[in-house]
What we know:
By secondary structure, the protein is α/β, with parallel strands linked by helices. It folds into two domains: 5-225, Rossmann fold, CATH 3.40.50.620; 246-328, 2-Layer Sandwich (Uridine Diphospho-n-acetylenolpyruvylglucosamine Reductase, domain 3), CATH 3.30.465. Helices cover 51% and strands 15% of the residues. The strands form two sheets. A six-stranded mixed beta sheet has the order 3-2-1-4-6-5, sandwiched between helices. Strands 7-8-11-10-9 form a five-stranded antiparallel beta sheet.
Amino acid sequence: MNDLQQIKDYIRKHKLLAPSDKVIVGVSGGPDSVFLLYLLHQWQHEFGIHLHVAHVNHRLRKAADQDQQFVETLARKLKIPCSTAVWGRKEGQRSSLEERARLYRLQFFSQLAKRQKTSLVALAHTQDDLAETVLMRLIRGTGLQGLRAMRPSSPYQSLEIVRPLLGTRKKDIHQYLKKHKIPYCIDITNQDIKFFRNKIRHQLLPLLVKDFNPQIYESLANVAEVSSADYDFLEARATDLFRRVTKVSADGTTLRIPLTSLRRCHPAIQRLLLRKAIERLQGNTRRLTFTHMKEMEDLLAHRPDNSRVHLPQQMVAQKDKKNLRLSRTS
């Protein structure tokens, strides 16, 4: 990568950084995060930002402690404050190991950001990561919300997560690091194709590049960008309608939506409205599938009054003469 101007342009276009920002930089020690840290360190005076390195040692590999030492040494070399955390994972939990590690990492970033009196976290996701995520979700099944994948900037609880490298290819990052003789850590588990993402990365995407579309990474990134714009428009419409027509019980366990409002809106808005209602009561829409959505649509359109649909996490949707009621059963 000879010209870094495109990354600066990307940061400015999406307004990812502003003067006086304190930025928590997530650094694993791998090539992408090391590259990001070097760039932000190089540009900190130009952008007027202050940096703080954050590293999580998940203890999932033998080299994890060495990675932590590498990041701490790098931060000292660049004269950037550094905070680390070690994950004490618990066995027997239902969610995947990868998901639990991700949530712990975000929790650590959130706590650190509060201590540092900031909300800004920079992560080193690349265009390759974006393309892989879009493809994974297409294969598993998703809608517009899922196709957005990762965005240049997105909120997470009290955090604002920015991704300055989302328009940058991994191959360009590797070339830059090699040219400038910048060391980094290598995670050998990234080569293990028993993991779904690695199988996409090392088998499917190279096949698509070779036999179908040499610009597949850019094409999938474009899908994410278009889907994000379309979803944001629908989301704004659904949010406005949600505020106007829904009623929540005093104890927060039941939500009522007039049938006339549901039946008047476009199916895309109707589905978003139903998802918002479930999220309002439950706090999330985990395990809510397309099949559940189709059942609720059938309930609204064809089933008699007082019919009900059972939803994940002990929720029930029930129709009476005038309203759809969503409630938690426990």
